[in-house]
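pinging the channel bc i need a second pair of eyes. not urgent but kinda urgent?? the chain im working w is below, pasted from the shared doc
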Amino acid sequence: MMTRDATSAVFARERLLLSLRNLKYFFCWWTLWDGSFVGGSPIELDTWISFPRNVSSAEVVSLAFFLIVFIERTLTRDYTVRRSYFNAPLLYLSALMFLSWIRGMVMIQRFAIVLEVHDLPEWPIMFLFFNNAFRDDEDGAMLFKLLFLTMVPKIFESIWIDLFSTDVRKSWGVVQSWRDGYLYDIAIMGALVMMHYRGTKLKRLKWLLFLIFPLAEGVLIIGFRRAAILSSVAAASTMFFTLPRGRRRRQFAVVGSVIVGFLLFAIVTNPLEVAYRFTGIFQPAGEGSALIRLMELPNVLLNIWHHPFMGVPFGVPWKTYYRMPISATYTTLGTHMSYLYWPLRMGIFGAIAFGWVYGAMCKSALLNYRFRKTEEDFFFGQVSIQIMVAYFVSSAFGLMYSEGLVVVLAVMMVAFQYQSKLILGTSDLRTIAFWRSMRSRRIVLQEPLGDRVRGLLAPAFARITQLGTLKS
């Protein structure tokens, strides 16, 4: 029988672990939204503390997050590293980026940890960290909620900057980060899917999302985030095909509310400026950023054409074949079309990495929704599909591989993984035949591709071994 002192020690340890768990949620949430391109926000860490040039405030917060996880692991004496379905594509991506980094340093003849945008190389590291920081089954739903809750500080920050900031950069919009625009899309998608939710367990989240929805639309308008607005409308339209037939009629009103909301805020706030920014899509010669995207496209495609195998390495500016406009700032170290960045920097192997990584995420999202069991599964599954649609639409217009987006993507992957474990009974989707399972509406198992390849090559290796033994 345990003594009173021993019992008190156990309860104290459990309370400490519970407190550390809440701290993990807090620092994860903080890491997701910290950072802004417009100064003057009272809640941003870099407003009060200066950081080195290539170190973001979100990276500093993630370091504090790491210390919290390290303390928790020390208390539980658990130093194991979890395996994941996403490990293989991310390891492949890491190898390609490392090779491109080495080639880049050789070509520019200098050593540098950071050669250009360093967010994409952080993706495998961030996923490894988040995948091992959250190990409880209920963490999956909580990670989705943390993504939605990023709107609380971001909406406050945007309104504060619009009213009180003296930074001249706000003239180009109070939301200039691609990550922030995507976070707004996630919140809007959550509100739209919640309109079809019929359960009761997510009641508090439901009213929070309904409150956030009009505010998020308003901020996107005053922030002139054209890609984010287009992404949310495209994802809302996609729901006509992904929703069950019995819920599609309501979707007409949902899509209408999205479009009317954007138009209403545009009319109330600054209709002439909003119209000017959006007409730049169709008349790019009159608007700098749109013209840059237009002229960047043939240049980047020609660079890929001339370097199809390994691409132009990190840190090496791509060659300008056609004159770029001088009406706005541009860089030859990246590309506004995210689809082209991977083959640009890593060649054909980068294109394969893009398809493998995002294909794995889409497989998880679609299977989780296909085999949903509860209304909560419906909500998180439908949200997973729509935020992937919004991401792919935004990738056609912006740098969806930078500006802290890898943290958001890493959290999404961990959340998808937990949903798979809850719904499918496993998070290792290599063993599930995707197309046959989707068509037959039952889980069809298969042998993983790696095991099949090893099985095919095993006889050949056995013969080689046997011949070597005979010769010796």
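so DSSP finds 18 helices and no strands in the chain. and Residues 72 and 396 are 41 Å apart (CA to CA). — does that match what u expected or am i reading it wrong
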